[in-house]
Specification:
This protein is mainly alpha-helical. Strands 1-2-3 form a three-stranded antiparallel sheet. β2 and β3 form a beta hairpin. It contains eight helices and three strands; from the N terminus they run αβββααααααα. The chain is elongated. About 60% of the residues lie in helices and about 10% in strands.
Length: about 150
């Protein structure tokens, strides 16, 4: 997998904010979509608290590693996909979390058997696609390009 491309994609899709902010669900977040955890030193900090570039990089790398672990544990076949589609899977898991990604049963079944047309339809036929808009379209287009 092209790690640089994944990092670029996620930075583009998630944005990068050098302070604690509330995401669209009201959860404390910073950096590149990092949800503040109880174990984070930023936990309980006020919205607007500055976060360093080094801290953002540290959390981003850990978040990506967690995505890979979640995908490996739950969808062992994902690394056998073409490179661009491993990027799609990692991007979706980063955004949704593995628990919500696993609810995309028809999408995942189609990806596993390399039925790209069905996978693309299933991606777009979701509340997630409505919420993330252009991101879902971009990822769907990558799936269709695998044909």
């Amino acid at each position: 997998m092209n790690m640089e491309k994944l990092q670029q994609d996620l930075t583009f899709d998630e944005g990068c904010v050098n302070e604690v902010y509330l995401d669209h669900l009201g959860y404390a977040t910073f950096g590149i979509g990092h949800l503040v955890l109880e174990s984070d030193p930023e936990h309980g900090q006020d919205v607007g608290t500055c976060v360093s570039d080094d801290r953002i990089k540290e959390c981003f790398e850990k978040d990506i590693a967690n995505v890979f672990e979640d995908l490996d544990r739950n969808l062992s076949w994902w690394r056998e996909l073409p490179d661009d589609l491993t990027l799609v899977m990692a991007n979706m898991c980063f955004n949704l979390g593995v628990t919500r990604l696993l609810k995309f049963k028809n999408f995942l079944s189609a990806m596993k058997v390399k039925d790209w047309d069905t996978a693309a339809v299933e991606m777009i036929d979701s509340r997630w696609a409505i919420q993330v808009g252009p991101r879902a379209v971009r990822l769907r287009d990558r799936v269709l390009e695998a044909k």
